[in-house]
Amino acid sequence: MPKNGKIIATIECRMTSSRLPGKVLMEAIAGRSMLEVMVERVKRAKQIEEVVLATTINSADDPIATLAKKLGTGCFRGSEGDVLSRVLCAAREFEADIIVELTGDCPLIDPQIISQVIDCYLLNDADYVSNCAVHSYPVGMDTQVFSRELLERANLEGLTPDDREHVSWYFVRNPEKFRLFTVAAPPALKFPDIAVTLDEKEDCELIRRILERLYYADHHFNCQDIVELIKKEPGLMRINEHIKRRQPVK
Q1: 247 falls in which pLDDT band (50, 70, 90)?
Q2: Where are the domains of the chain?
Q3: Exposed, middle or buried by CB within 10 Å (0-12, 13-18, 19+), for 41?
Q4: b/e for 73-95, b at 16 or more Cβ within 10 A?
Q5: Residues 6+ apart with CB under 8 A from 70
Q6: CA distances for 222 relative to 43, 138, 208, 228, angstroms
Q7: Whole-model pTM above 0.70?
Q8: Of 82, 80, 72, 74, whose CA–CA distance to 7 is shortest?
Q9: pLDDT of amino acid 1
Q10: Which strands make up the sheet holding 128-130, listed edge to edge?
C-alpha cells in the first residue's frame, strides 16, 4: 500500500570528526562550505518537505546551528554518540512521518537519486529502503528511507553501540524482522569504486576539483556528470583511491 505523511531529510553532521575535524564547514566552492553545497542539493529532491541538520549539543557545533539559520533549514541538537537518538528526536521535533537519513559527508549527493530511493519506499511494501546496504552507486550517494515509527522501534530494541552510532543498522542486521529493499545502480552509474565522500583531506581535494569543473557550468550537475568527468580524467580517482573506508561491524 502506498505510504504518505511528512517527509523530512535529516543530515547528521558535527565538527569533531576524528579523521578530518571541521570537514563539513570546509570551503567547497566560491566561499561555500561542503555542508552548504550538500543542503542546496538535498533541497532539490522533490518529495522532501524539510531539511534538518542533526548536530550535537557540543559548543563546537554552534557554527552548524548558525549555518542552519542562514540557510533556512531546521536544526536539532542532541547526543554526539547516540546518533540514533539524535535523529529520532529530530524527527519527533519536526513531526516527520518518513525519514530520509543522510550524512554530512556526502556533499555531492544527487537529488535525483535521493528521489528514486524515496519513490521506491513510497510505492513498495518495504520497511526500509536504501542504496547503500549493498554499494553499487559511487560512495557518497548514500540514501536511506524509513518511517519514524520504525525508528521508534529501533530505539527500543537496538541497544548495541553499533545500533546507536549507525542509526539504521538495527534494521540491516535483522533482515528476518524487517522488509528490506536495496535500490541498485543502473549500469551507467554502477561505479562503487568511485568515492566522492568526505572522510579525509584527499577526499576534500577531490570534491573541490569536481566542483571546480562542474559547478560553475551547471549547479544542478548529477551523478552521471561526475562519473563522466572521472572517466575523462581518470587521474582524479587516484587522489583518494588509497583511503580505506570504515564499515559498520556486523
Answers
A1: low
A2: 7-192
A3: buried
A4: bbbbbbeeebbbebbbbbbeebe
A5: none
A6: 14, 12, 15, 10
A7: yes
A8: 74
A9: 46
A10: 74-78, 50-56, 7-12, 98-103, 144-147, 128-130, 180-182
Dihedral of CA atoms 237, 39, 47, 5 in degrees, nearest 10, equals: 120
Higher pLDDT, 59 or 247: 59
- What number of CA atoms fall less than 13 Å from residue 69's CA on the CB side? 4
Q: If you average pLDDT over residues 194-207, what whole number do you get?
A: 97
Cα 57 to Cα 69, 86, 180, 237: the distances in Å are: 16, 10, 32, 36
Query: How does pLDDT run across 117-173, given as a tens digit for each residue?
Result: 999 999 999 999 999 988 999 999 999 999 999 999 999 999 999 999 999 999 999
Dist. CA 182–CA 121, nearest whole Å: 10
Residue 71 phi, psi dihedral angles, 5° rounding: -90, -10
Task: Give the per-residue pLDDT at 3.
Answer: 82
- What count of residues does the chain have? 250
Q: How many CB atoms lie within 10 A of CB 185?
A: 18
**Cell numbers 535529516 correspond to what residue?**
10
Give the whole-angstrom CA distance, residue 208 versus residue 115.
25
pLDDT grade, residue 18 (50/70/90)?
A: confident
Domain 7-192, CATH homologous superfamily name and number: Spore Coat Polysaccharide Biosynthesis Protein SpsA; Chain A (3.90.550.10)
Written as one string, the DSSP assignment of 37-84 is HHHHHHTTSTT--EEEEEEESSGGGHHHHHHHHHHT-EEEEE-SS-HH
Question: What is the average pLDDT across 175-195?
Answer: 97
- For strand 74-78 and strand 50-56, is the pairing parallel, antiparallel, or unpaired? parallel
